[in-house]
Amino acid sequence: MSPARTPTGAAPTRGRRAGRSTGDDREAAILATAERLLRDRPFGDISIDDLARGAGISRPTFYFYFPSKDAVLLTLLDRVTEEADTAAGGVLDRLAEDPRARWRELIARFHAIFGGHRDVVLACAQVRGTNPEVRRLWAEVLERWVRAVQAAVEAERARGAAPDGLPARDLAIALNSMNERVWYATFAGDGPAVAERDVVDVLLDVWLTAIYHTTTPPLAPAD
Amino acid sequence: MSPARTPTGAAPTRGRRAGRSTGDDREAAILATAERLLRDRPFGDISIDDLARGAGISRPTFYFYFPSKDAVLLTLLDRVTEEADTAAGGVLDRLAEDPRARWRELIARFHAIFGGHRDVVLACAQVRGTNPEVRRLWAEVLERWVRAVQAAVEAERARGAAPDGLPARDLAIALNSMNERVWYATFAGDGPAVAERDVVDVLLDVWLTAIYHTTTPPLAPAD
DNA sequence: ACCCCAGTCAACACCATGTCGACTCCGATC
DNA sequence: GATCGGAGTCGACATGGTGTTGACTGGGGT
User: A206: which of A32, A70, B59, B219 lies 20 to 30 Å off by Cα?
Assistant: First the structure.
């Protein structure tokens, strides 16, 4: 998970224009207010004034801490993806041990984290359409995950556990895309969706069949 | 494809408040303007004034034809999904003939239609986050496709061509979701994406392995 | 005693949306 | 051939959210 940590790393000061004195708690208050308000209404229905008042400041003061409403969401998203990266870290290194169990662990962890921050994730999906910054950040995060999966698939093929087929990168993109969209529908309760308690196993099944052509991949190296 | 044709059917007058005289061409002009403007800037950057001026009318007059900017897009979306329904109709009835070829045909047709109206589709994906009407329409369309795929999978299992496994509905949801998200990324050129010329085959591969556990499903009935 | 600057906000400028009321044709009616 | 009604049209206004300006405060450093 080391490559291209640029997004979070290269933009160390997204909120708060610079400087570092007292008002740190105000910044935190804005973030907390956003997360709280998101719990019962969509991002688009929250005005900057709501955020400001919720944090006990006036609207112009809000701009002292964040350049826009979207920047608040971006900071929130940053946290979630960082958490996900941490949770996912290393799981795929031990794939050969027990492929099915490891893939399931990976998917289950993502599920737990996205589910735990569903309001933020859902809001980001909403604004991704209109905000290039969110789009860019999400694209970078996704790229890391795609690369990790791609490498894992190539490793499984190398040890003879998975058959050749699609370019590993395309496969990784397709599977990650599926997860994203399926989780979105599940958490949003929007349109045809997989039940929340089943979603990990449904996704796992498609991943395993797409990668191994079976739902019970071999544990030991083939040769 | 018969069930629940409500969306288009039950709201016969989304544009135009009622009546049916000359101004039909104005309505068409608005639609055409929207499609044209969408070609070089995102939906959010197009104002009602742009639409009105493009159609040679004033902003208040616009409201005579459509209740909002989103309603224009909704009408455009309606056309595209109708076209897709037509193109997809019946393909799955002849699945047993040659499963691989039929599934490929289905995916390729959707690809062609979405690709041909990518601006509209992309715009809809953008506003789906903020507009409940678009969300609802898309959900209904998706529900039809999910049902069709579910039925096809069940039929393939019944004739012994596909192994049992996931509930067919969950599988259908997952695969349709994957397609939606993958196409979006491909057409938007946004983040990790499959190359446009490869996308049909990539999707097909995942569909076949998920449904049949092989990329070469059997042609003749098993017993 | 002074200055600087993080932090604060009232007031303003701007822009997009949506609404109202008045106006103009034009075809139908008596 | 007057008049009536409704489709079609738009100028002007109300509303509401965003982002900016300029002035004020208070405390830490010199």
Answer: B219
